């Protein structure tokens, strides 16, 4: 394990704020192409929730700003230029009284809000949302994940300050999940709503969704947020200094690379710039996320702390028409309950019943079995193990979207 | 996005591999007659898989071979070709292929076929399983549990009850052998047994309890007949056991909200 100080800071020349069409994020752009922006300066404001602002991930110049039809954000591209400096937010109101309303307003205006993820449905929480509980994940058990203790090392006071701020956002408990490696065991948090929770060190126990399902299931009207410990540290130091954290600790790994490396890079970093000097010859794909749950893309996505490079082009040689016909006609492929499937849910959820409900599109049973606490990354391991077709992640997302639409109606 | 290996055919192949000790023991015990019977059943079941592949685009499965082996071992002897063919066809088609193939079936096709033959042709004698098959069943269960394609909870709970009953003199040795072979070949089938932790414990206990009830109360029943009847009723009850397990799981989580 490298010491925390040895990890190289790698700010890529290009980076982007982006949204997928399915996010339907409608925004006003506060800058124009060619403008110099300081790191942390507001660049986007949500049209649906004008309190919610996104900030520049890097100091530099706005290279391009693309809004799709209906002012939906496609992406804003930034060129890095350290001379543009850092934007300092006014934190005096939030710091003086530790006022929950001021903290909330400050996080919304400083672009820190999208660090939280709200379940059910796994989205950025609404500005007025009051979480029933918050889960701080001080461990990450995914393959090749960066160790959160590297991000926490020497910054426990900022972490504590961040936890106190989180406690002010909710009336419920704040669970700090850790595996004992980050020296959190005998941390004096001074707040009985902050609960240190030690959990097993093996995948999938470090997934927030399974811990939420086991300890505090999310439900409509009872949102549960999760946030990574490194972001809590960033939150704590932001409330002290007014500076939005510049980097996050990212692990770059995968079969298409010559070596596994840890870097500190900005959010939305360019995946090609992070990998080009260590990639093996031949075609490869870059995933934002781990090899289990990553999505192919150019930029490091929100909540992602891993880059995986997978060898191959992703388009397999088209099979013989006969075997293709056999395979397509029998979808969804049956999933046989084995010990491997039980392990894929860590023994926390009834695996076979849940997978069956997902594949049968039985949202009622899936909701009873805890599907509302899950997002795609939580079923990615089961997806990998069973080679399910169609993907369990896709079936879960479709089900969650439908449940969300029914909730609104 | 790499893909893992635990798809349907991997599980079927591992189950077949686990069945090898049992197959070898059985073939050594029955010789040429058993081999011919196995080949006949394999061909009959394979033809139905082929028919469903061509007519319904249903990919055939190696699990069909396991079904054929179970039928060859456990079906009543001296039936003649035509009744045997009818029984296998009924089991394979109505028990498995009509539901969409292995993985979507509700009851084990071999259980259906054997029960159909046994009750449809009551004059045919049930096979008497040689005692070494019971030992081979232990090997099969060990391999199956080790690679994770058989639920150890079913095997352990059923075995515990059956062995205690045998030790206490409530179960004769032929019944124990038959119950063990049927347990590993049919009851532990991952598709048609219960799929939750509690459900699996109950599944094993229910099977063992039914074997004991039939063995003591069913006058004139053969050992295999007793075990097959218990297996059929158990697999019909499996969804109920899962439902019980799910209700209990939900009740225990009520305090979480």
TrEMBL record, chain A:
A GO term (biological process) for this protein? Answer: sodium ion transport
Does Ribonucleoprotein show up as a keyword for this record?
Answer: no
- Keywords recorded for this protein, A-Z: Ion transport, NAD, Sodium, Sodium transport, Translocase, Transport, Ubiquinone
Q: The NqrA second alpha/beta domain covers which part of the protein?
A: 102-243
Please give the start and end residues of each transmembrane region. Answer: none
Q: Which InterPro entries match?
A: NqrA, NQRA_2nd, NqrA_C_domain, NQRA_N
Annotated Pfam families = NQRA_2nd (PF24836), NQRA_N (PF05896), NQRA_SLBB (PF11973)
NqrA N-terminal barrel-sandwich hybrid domain location, by residue? 13-76
Domain Na(+)-translocating NADH-quinone reductase subunit A C-terminal as annotated: residue spans = 250-294
A GO molecular-function term, please? oxidoreductase activity, acting on NAD(P)H, quinone or similar compound as acceptor
* NAD among keywords: yes
Q: What is this protein called?
A: Na+-transporting NADH:ubiquinone oxidoreductase subunit A
TrEMBL record, chain B:
Q: What is this protein called?
A: Na+-transporting NADH:ubiquinone oxidoreductase subunit B
- Look up the domain of life of the source: Bacteria
> Which terms does the UniProt entry file under GO BP?
transmembrane transport
Q: Which InterPro entries match?
A: NqrB/RnfD
Which cellular components does GO assign to this protein? plasma membrane
Enumerate the UniProt keywords alphabetically: Flavoprotein, FMN, Membrane, Phosphoprotein, Translocase, Transmembrane, Transmembrane helix, Transport, Ubiquinone
Q: Which organism is it from?
A: Paracoccus solventivorans
**Chain ranges passing through the membrane:** 12-29, 35-55, 62-86, 106-126, 133-152, 164-188, 200-218, 224-245
